[in-house]
Amino acid sequence: MKKLGYDFYNREDVLTIAQELLGKVLVTKFNGAVTSGRIVETEAYQGVTDRASHAYGGRRTNRTEIMFGKAGTAYVYLCYGIHHLFNVVTNKENTPHAILIRAIAPLNGIPHMLARTGRTKADYTLGKGPGNVSKALGINTQHTGTSLTGKELYIADDDFIVSPSAIGITKRIGVDYAGEDALLPYRFILKDSPYVSGRKIRS
User: If 36 and its partner were Cys, which of 1, 108, 189, 192 is the partner (CB 3.0–4.6 Å)?
Assistant: First the structure.
């Protein structure tokens, strides 16, 4: 596998990057445990102009400051006080674009994933939904700010080919508060993957 470099993330079009992340492999190497999963669902967030983004209107807080930083950095936040959600920061500094990884198809280290999630059997829920992604891979808010070009947490290309016809495009999930921006077609899925969360609306 070839690790994605800084130039992959440091581009202006967050929608293109979100689509190109489909089929890539998200890898963690924590405390000797190596786990990975193929990305099958992403959501793009377009920064200060996107009402669904944490950085909408240029909002800068201790939590969101990482979004304004260097591309290819992890942004991990706590949702509902329970779920650690993993995002990829993109674009140049001070342009807070980000991509939420919503689902993976587990590949390696499944016994570690089961132990982390308290499961006894690997079914489709293991990598379905952004909370499960982070839990299975051992990602938490302590990893926010981690470079995705390092050794512990990164995304790689293993030459898996995703055809344009395999990609579904829908509105995002759980952002009804964003008004008209909730309807933007910023969610991308591999249509045939059983790990995709929510409705698999075809595009």
Answer: 108
Given 3.30.70.2470, 3.10.300.10, 3.40.50.300, 3.30.70.100, which CATH number is that of 2-190? Answer: 3.10.300.10
Per-residue pLDDT of the chain (203 residues; tens, 9 = 90+): 999 999 999 999 999 999 999 999 999 999 999 999 999 999 999 999 999 999 999 999 999 999 999 999 999 999 877 889 999 999 999 999 999 999 999 999 999 999 999 999 999 999 999 999 999 999 999 999 999 999 999 999 999 999 999 999 999 999 999 999 999 999 999 999 999 997 655 44
Q: Name residues whose C-beta falls within 8 Å of residue 18's C-beta, 6 or more positions apart in sequence.
A: 42, 43, 44, 99, 186, 188
45, containing H or E segment: strand 33-46
Q: Which tokens sit at 8?
A: 């992959």
Tokens 């808010």 map to which residue?
141
Tokens of 156: 């790689």
Nearest to 13 by CA among 53, 42, 44: 44
3-class secondary-structure state, position 10: coil
Distance CA 173, CA 166 (A): 20
